[in-house]
């Protein structure tokens, strides 16, 4: 089991490295159409084959890694930061009407999954990266509000926290000195898990046409473009599907690896 969790760490690092490298270098330009090379099987020049426009699949996958993983990480970090801040605000200030308002808004956001939020945004704005980031971020805000609030309530029941309160320690000082470690550890673990869900959400939105649009690409967009040719040219969907599967699995296992190494109880 330890080996499996470690594999998640290496998979996650691998995809992050590919995303960074693809930002600066690709084997071929993904906008370089070579129609006479269209739908080639994997060969010595195009290691993973070409698509229906003659574009190199390996280059498309690398560019797709940058977009898919970049969107997932930015969206989760944005949503988690807002949720984390709001939960801390509730705990430090202890204003009943503010707490109720934030929880009501949190429950309302949970009623709107990322797909529905993206559909609403697409009604007013053109589909694109920003819509996907906003949709995924909004869905993550209530998750991190609940996680942070629950953790604070649990840690507050410890004897040393009660003793610090009895000695006149203020909430902000208590948070900074005694609780931030537990919060930070849980925050990091949950971010890794949520990135895996965000990758699936981004792929679904791009597949449906609400995410990445031409000339950019992502794994979900590649699946959509390749589905027409799946019977005769299955590699068009095998490669992006495999990348997405390994990336989601990697970040899920990374969360488990972090939980064990940060000594967080199950």
Describe this structure in words.
By secondary structure, the chain is an all-alpha fold. The protein has a single domain, classed as MetI-like fold. 73% of the residues lie in helices and 0% in strands. Helix 2 packs antiparallel against helix 7. The longest helix has 38 residues. The two termini are 15 Å apart.
Produce the secondary structure layout.
Elements: H1 2-24, H2 57-93, H3 96-110, H4 114-124, H5 129-155, H6 159-166, H7 171-208, H8 219-226, H9 235-261
Helix pairs in contact: 1-2, 1-9, 2-5, 2-7, 3-5, 4-5, 5-7, 7-8, 7-9, 8-9
Features of the shown structure:
266 residues, mainly alpha, MetI-like fold, 9 helices, 73% helix
What's the short version?
This protein is mainly α.
The average pLDDT value, as a whole number, equals 80
Structural class, by secondary structure, is mainly alpha
CATH architecture: Orthogonal Bundle
CA gyration radius, whole angstroms: 22 Å
| Form type | elongated
Strand percentage: under 5%
| CATH-defined superfamily | MetI-like
Unreliable stretches, pLDDT < 50, 5 or more residues? none
- What number of structural domains do the residues give? 1
CATH class assignment: Mainly Alpha
Please report the number of helical segments: 9
